[in-house]
Fold this sequence. Notes:
Distance between the termini: 40 Å
Structural class: mainly alpha
Largest sheet: 3 strands, antiparallel
Number of helices: 20
Radius of gyration: 25 Å
Helix content: 25-40%
Number of strands: 9
Number of domains: 2
CATH architecture of the largest domain: Alpha/alpha barrel
Amino acid sequence: MNRDKFNCFTQKKKKKKIETSIDHLPKNPDRELESIPTPLNSILDPNETPLNCLHPLHVPLPFRPPAFTFPLDVLFSYSTPKLEKPHQTPPLSTHETPQTKTNTLSLSLSLTPPFPTMPTLRLPFLLLLAAAAAVAAEASYLDYGDALSKCILFFEGQRSGYLPQDQRLAWRGNSGLGDGWTYNADLTGGYYDAGDNVKFGFPMAFTTTLLAWSVVEFGGLMPPPELRNALVAIRWATDYLLKTVSQPNRIFVQVGDPNIDHYCWERPEDMDTARTVFAVDAPNPASDVAGETAAALAASSLAFRSSDPGYSDTLLKNAVKAFEFADSYRGAYSDNSDVRDHACPFYCDFDGYQDELLWGAAWLRRATQDESYLNYIQNNGKTLGADENINEFGWDNKHAGLNILVSKEFLEDNVYSLQSYKSSADSFMCTLIPDSSSSTHIQYTPGGLIYKPGGSNLQHATSIAFLLLVYANYLSTTSQSMNCGSVSIGAATLRQQAKRQADYILGENPQGISYMVGYSAYYPLHIHHRGSSLPSIKDHPQFIACKEGSIYFNSSDPNPNVLVGALVGGPGEDDEYEDSRVDFRKSEPTTYINAPFVGVLAYLNANSNPS
């Protein structure tokens, strides 16, 4: 056993202290397990490992047991219901009696002579075995239903504006209540994009599009309560987006100055920094934000079509209006000098506005079935770069998602004029299959996670996993496959690839931790998030000023408020993850990491072993 890896040893090593917490125990992560009886501790050499360090419920990241060192091997069997773990939501279509599987666990502990007899260990030893059994069971079990519920819940922690009475993350309070007053507009509501207190329109619109697409494709697989929660999450965003296009020839693109906001570490409820509003007026361009807003509203109109037809119509009308602005005044919103210095480098349009024009038109085509949008996609595909095969899909680059979305109409309705979109979709998918003969492949970490350098990496893993499942559905619906050179790839391969990404994120990775906060027994505790890391307004009603929050940012204590469901930026290219609030690329959650994962988890909850 390498002592240097454990933070409970007294040796002063260079390894950073990383805490862990237990999901289903009281949230007091830095508690010590002092309840272990003295007799068992007393048999250990004082210079050897304290038993507290060996306890399976209190092991620092990145080391997740299941094994201890012990001259005695203990073999025992335990039975766990396959579908009846606490908090699991079984698939809606399940009619089978849950099966029971029996596992055998081998444990050992390293004790110094004289070695005690079994009667000496009695209850403490049995408790140790039982706890270890629970860890082993957890390691081989992923509850997609629980993950889905928490993935959606996360959005309540990002809310801005007046919070409703049914707000479930009770440590949050009202914030940003004066947003928009300088323009005589109501810009309250919406979401903070990440761990700060700024409302960026570009990533918020993309988040909304992906949440809505998750419901459009996989809402029928969601348990009814979670479908409702997903629609609530979408509506919190669309209500705000409707406000951003409420004034003629103007689109509001941002509330809050990140240069000032990032200077402070304070709760959204305490914000005393300027809530600067950034708007783009015609004829100045904002094709990217307006195009993405059109996509978000059009996709959301589909999500609400059956449950709230009136609201759906409102969304669609405003989507048309947003697209007209985007297409009429072409250019990037960050080309405007008064916006550039405040949107960049955070959410500059680095990849051009052309993809958002096609993306917005594609969603309007799907929502309206209007031939004019089909003609737009057909006639502008080449000039707007639809054939660019960039193996990326995110808030700034929509090409991969665009090609897959448009391919649905080619595959299902035989619209042969869209063949080029299908070819580009196939090319993109082939880059994701390591065994294919594609000339280029996306990078994977040694542990199997999709990796792209720069920024929060899990945004790529969740969005690409979502596209894999969507395209697999389109292929299977039409009984088709795709050719990656000499290799034929079917829907099952794409689904398995998506499942591997999801499973890695939820805990099947070299670190043995979940990158979703609050899921499983081991997850990040020091996330880069103001509201989570500062005392809640309910526990500490006194005002915490801009720089007074620095002590909480620099604290080694776990965040006092658990942002349940948050997906952090994730590990590096070597699968290493350091649970550090300072390393925002790895520890900061964002709404657009979670949004596509809602669809992924909805599918896997209903199809845990996809084929």
